[in-house]
Amino acid sequence: MTPGAPFSAAVEPRELIASARWALRLAASTRPSLLAAVAATTLLRGLVPAAMAIAARGAVNATLAAAADRSLGIAPILPWILLGLGLAVLDGLTAAVNRYGTYRLRDELDYRVTGDLLEHAAKLELAYFEDPRSQDVLARAKQEPAEHVAKFVGELLALAGNGLQVLSLLGVLAVIEPLFLAAVALCALPYGLFQARLALRRYAIEHLRATKRRWSSYFVAALTDRATVAEVQLLRLAPHLIERFRSLMGEFRDQDGILHRRDLRGAALFVLMTTVATYVIFLRVAVRVVGGSATIGDLAIFGGASTRLRVALESLVNAISGLLQRTLHIANVTEFLATEPATSRPADVAPPPGGGEIEFERVTFTYPGAVEPALSAVSLHIRAGETVALVGENGAGKSTLVKLVAGLYRPDSGALRLDGVDLRELPADALRDRMAFVLQNFGRYEASAADNIAYGDWRRLLDDREQVREIARRAGVDALLESLPNGYDTQLGRTFGDVDLSGGEWQRVALARAFARDARLLVLDEPTSNLDARAEHDLFLRFRRLAHGRTTILVSHRFSTVAMADRIVVLERGRIVESGSHAELMVRAGAYAQLYELQRRSHEPS
Which fold does the domain 444-518 belong to in CATH? Predict the structure, then answer.
């Protein structure tokens, strides 16, 4: 979008009002005492300039009177000086309290808003985060949400304070010269409308930049993330990625430059008009002083108060503009917080008793934005305690089926039951507490080696080192972890620690994490892809002993491992085409036998 284009991001006034009310309620409920302190000091500071102008006027007139009649001494002057002193002290103290309260309130809102966003994100389903349209909503909501709320509150109070300051100064100056009110209105109203339109334009441009902002972040990550930097260097991709990054940032710079120039022209015109008008009226007041209809004190405070008023007016207009822009950004936060999971899960349904029986009944699922379904009318019954292996080429639907069982996605149609209860009727936490899993993209947590295992059941194990050691021993990773520089206390990962594991070692830790949970259902999606065939075979034998009596769903491309399953299910293009034991499927000489033969030949020496 170019800065001169029409404002295409429609903004409803009621949406702005709703966002403003939400931010105020949030601030008031977070720390009401801090909000009250900031509000009170802001309003007090708004009255101080007018009061000081009155004190200065009184001091000047009293000084002139004392100079004309020396017998009066300083008695007429002293009260005005003391009033000015008190007001100056009050102004300084309220400024300090206001600054303290503002910083504290900003910290409290940062803690509250960021935490609320993370808690809400944790409630959303995986499908939301994989939808590009949702990514733009999420990206806009993540653009310093707490900062926008804190600045909204600050600018709202600044608006009130500046408004009070403007009104009080106008009252003082209008008594001296009523014509000044008309001059102020002619200058301030057009400038206020100009700044409001400019704020809408800024928001519109930033709103439509969400996708491009994500692209720019992607280019930065590709050039600096250790997971990609090696390949970027080997392919010499850096110049190309940097050029694409510069192209985006150059577009942003050029658009913002146009807006900054407009702001400069508007501000310069406002300063010019108000300054000329002020001095024209200042001359009029001087003429009145000469004519005897005004005092020297009036003239003295008119110059200072009118200059202060111009600054206050500009601050007031900028506060209105900033408030509008902050409210628009807060609408991004409330839009994300209003996002609900595709379907709500009950919170108080107890998980059913049983051993982990799973039943798919004509289940169909399509990924967001995809044309073809990943699973089509799949029906599958897995008995409690049975080990079932899923086999098929890439894209056949194996991982999708596993993620449906884990509750990461919901079927578009059909039913998926655990021990006779539809998964949609189970609370998400109750469902996931009953299963252990290792997915293809398993976690490599920046934490100690012990915590990387304890995360499998962190409520129970984080403070139980002996139990973590026992789990590691049973999973066969105790020797690996004991050999680390600080043993189980070694910080893993290169982001915060000094020790990183190989892909296979990380995978063994992830498997130990799965063993940490006493679950009736085990879901393993390519759990040993980083291990060689022998290591995988040995690990799966160990795993079968540990998983005895539990229902297990295994996805693997290695048929030596798959052959040990009780039953093998073959998928093609989202449908089940074969099911049976290794021996039965080999005798059938169908899809499984063909895949098995292809893999066997690929491992034969040429």
Answer: Rossmann fold (3.40.50)
